[in-house]
Amino acid sequence: PDRRTALMARAKTLLKERNAVLVAHYYVDGDLQDLAMETGGCVADSLEMARFGRDHASQTLIVAGVKFMGESAKILSPEKRVLMPDLDATCSLDLGCPADDFAAFCDAHPDREVVVYANTSAAVKARADWMVTSSCALAIVQHLKDQGKKVLWAPDRHLGRYIQENTGADMLMWNGACIVHDEFRGVELDLLRAEYPDAKVLVHPESPRSVVEQADVVGSTSQMLNAVTSMDAQTFIVATDNGILHRMRQMAPTKTLIEAPTAGNSATCKSCAHCPWMAMNALQGVVDCLERGTGEIFVDEPIRSQALGCIDRMLDFVK
Ligand code: 13P
Ligand code: SF4
């Protein structure tokens, strides 16, 4: 605890001295979330992180999350320094959608509007017409469908299927998955719901269909947090990375929050739903960024300016 207190204090001083702001995702360590909240930064979903970083006056952004979040911040604000606590923090969706293969997929289907999830590299975004996050994906694809457009979707197959089923849009899909949400299990969730019949079920749409089908609310991390604070229920079953429970408990201290079961729950671990890449973000990393300028994000200019188009289109849409 002493080392932690010292690192917290050091990080606070450095953020102030360097005129930097910490932009954190709900899945990172609770200390980093608290640090962000206590120093004028934010804890947010991926859409809000992008907007917050773009609109903040500070010229140095510390992005605690995974690489695509740092890249999106840099794409939106090339004049700012964007630093990350650990540059190796990536995402299975990003890894599973290499830019060259994706470009070939797009080339083979030139008649389709290319819609990519935020969880992709800058090079993949450079090829897209639209970027979406979990909080606005449904509305944007509905909009495209209403315009009579056919969609090429990448990379998350569960989110893609959820959107396809809810909009009826013609969607050709990449076969990617989030290694964290893919582990939630419908059968076990059904059993858990029988134990807590009054519980509301909150599900992130990167989860399999058998889990999404049982949801009272399907949404982004911020939308799930809003549900906990605004819904009348006392008990919630939460199907997303368990890092979010930190903020949920702070925002709704009297509510009962239960983690949804994962494939690994039964035998090997109690709560497997935690992203190994999000977990790489630590206080020491924040201090290192600020003290030594480690973890800086760079995006090559031609790719950056091409990728900006699809992000701006989304931000204009959700305005
Ligand atoms: P949101 O916070 O936008 O819902 O995204 C979740 C996610 O997968 C981040 O890794
Ligand atoms: Fe990627 Fe899943 Fe981790 Fe989010 S939780 S960063 S989608 S692997």
From TrEMBL:
Keywords: 4Fe-4S, Cytoplasm, Iron, Iron-sulfur, Metal-binding, Pyridine nucleotide biosynthesis, Transferase. It is an enzyme of class 2 (transferase). GO terms for biological process: 'de novo' NAD+ biosynthetic process from L-aspartate. GO terms for cellular component: cytosol. It is found in: Cytoplasm. Its cofactor is [4Fe-4S] cluster. Its main location: cytoplasm. Its EC number is 2.5.1.72. Pfam families: NadA. Catalyzes the condensation of iminoaspartate with dihydroxyacetone phosphate to form quinolinate. This is Quinolinate synthase.
